[in-house]
Design a protein that fits this description.
The protein has 424 residues and is α/β, with parallel strands linked by helices. The protein contains 17 helices and twelve strands.
């Protein structure tokens, strides 16, 4: 267990985002900052995209005689008054030390640990608003599942955040359905964090040994260790600032202390690329699994699709992130096989693909009818991954990922999937 020990300062934590998953993670983090007062400031800030709502009639807080229920109020005021996100995580009590803030700049001010949990399309704009208001030595964890893929490259959201803000950022992903986590039903997750070298090399003050020589660790050239490698093994464009030695080091032990709960078990690894890729590629496999479920082919067929899908996920990671991806991230961690199983059992990509076959309509039509304006990640990821592979002449090496895209495009039939999975 990490302890404050000789460190005289505590970490301040901010959660950027307040949807259902953002609120669930904020709940966990606030519980742990309160329980570990030697490491963290108790108060946790949660940035909220401000909007005005009334307490819904279905809420336990609804009172026909209260202005909160009859007149619109700012969401942050409702969260801080009721200690509940009545719109995005209704019915779940939030810790009193979790403070909702409508100001992004105020919420991240002086925070040493930033936790990102928002729709990926808002990363760029929000980072632009934040970059002049954060501590230069802050560190981050992205809870945003998936990666950004186009024909040119695969970009990790954690590295996008890191480059825009000039900080190091890890990733959290796993078989984590937000409502189940918030209800404290047991689950696991994976945090990927590869601590930059300088974070564990805080030099000691100048001192002399009994023989009168200065310890080597006291003579470190700090300018030489502000570099770190990205997930492809290249020197990152970001020149990091070393956190003050007065703060506890942000390492695997500290992150587990911040996120682990009796109902939410955490494994911390160093494979940021593998954890991020697992959260993206499993959505394509879930669509393929939904297709065979819609045909009524049974559990054997679904298991076959998941097996091939898992192999292709590993192959993709090892092929394009060979310097950092570990097979075990996909086969042993919650961010890999567990998240794949959950997504292929009842996730929205699986459900919509299944309904599209049963109704004999396109998955796009099901998406419009069933998701209330939300978008499936699997369909767009399938297209992006196909174009990325095609541009490199590697499309024949991933028959399930590519075959799923071809079914979505109407080029081949769902019934062809067993043959497509075999490849050429």
């Amino acid at each position: 267990m990490a302890t404050l020990g000789v460190h005289s300062k505590k970490h301040k934590v901010t959660v950027v985002g307040s949807g259902n998953w953002g609120s669930a993670i904020a709940k966990i983090v606030a519980e742990n900052t309160k329980a570990n007062a030697d490491l963290f400031q108790e108060e946790v800030q949660m940035w909220v995209f401000e909007e005005e709502i009334t307490v819904p009639r279905t809420s336990k807080h609804y009172d026909a005689g209260s202005k909160f229920s009859t007149e619109p109020h700012k969401l942050t005021k409702l969260i801080n008054h009721f200690h509940e996100n009545v719109k995005y995580l209704p019915g779940i009590a939030l810790p009193s030390n979790l403070i909702a803030s409508p100001s992004l700049q105020d919420s991240v001010h002086d925070s040493t640990i930033l936790i990102f949990n928002l729709p990926h399309q808002f990363i760029g704009g929000l980072c632009d608003q934040m970059k002049d208001h954060i501590l230069p030595y802050a560190r981050g964890v992205s809870c945003i599942k998936g990666v950004s893929v186009d024909s040119e490259d695969v970009c990790l959201f954690s590295e996008t955040i890191g480059e825009k803000l000039g900080i190091y950022c890890g990733a959290l992903s796993g078989a984590n359905i937000a409502n189940e986590v918030a209800l404290e039903k047991f689950s696991e997750t994976t945090i990927a964090y590869d601590p930059p070298p300088m974070d564990s090399r805080n030099p000691t003050p100048q001192a002399t040994t009994p023989k009168g020589t200065t310890p080597q660790s006291s003579q470190l050239d700090l300018s030489a260790i502000n570099e770190h490698k990205d997930t492809r093994g290249k020197t990152s464009k970001v020149k990091l600032i070393i956190p003050p030695s007065e703060l506890p080091p942000i390492d695997h032990t500290l992150l587990k202390t911040l996120f682990h709960r009796p109902y939410f078990h955490v494994q911390v690894v160093s494979d940021v690329a593998g954890v991020s890729l697992g959260g993206a590629l499993k959505n394509i496999v879930a669509i393929a699994t939904g297709f065979v479920a819609g045909l009524g082919w049974g559990d054997n067929a679904k298991a076959a699709v998941m097996r091939v899908g898992l192999l292709e996920m590993v192959k993709f990671g090892k092929m394009f992130f060979s310097n950092s991806v570990h097979t075990g991230t996909f086969t042993e961690e919650s961010a890999g096989v567990a998240d794949l199983i959950t997504s292929c059992s009842g996730g929205r990509n699986y459900r919509c693909a299944k309904m599209s076959v049963e109704r004999k309509v396109s998955i796009g039509e099901v998406e419009k009818e069933e998701l209330n304006g939300q978008m499936l990640q699997g369909t767009s990821t399938a297209k992006d991954v196909y174009e990325f592979l095609k541009a490199r002449g590697k499309d024949d090496e991933f028959p399930l990922l590519v075959g799923t895209y071809r079914i979505l495009q109407g080029e081949v039939k769902v019934e062809d999937l067993p043959d497509l999975m075999v490849g050429k």
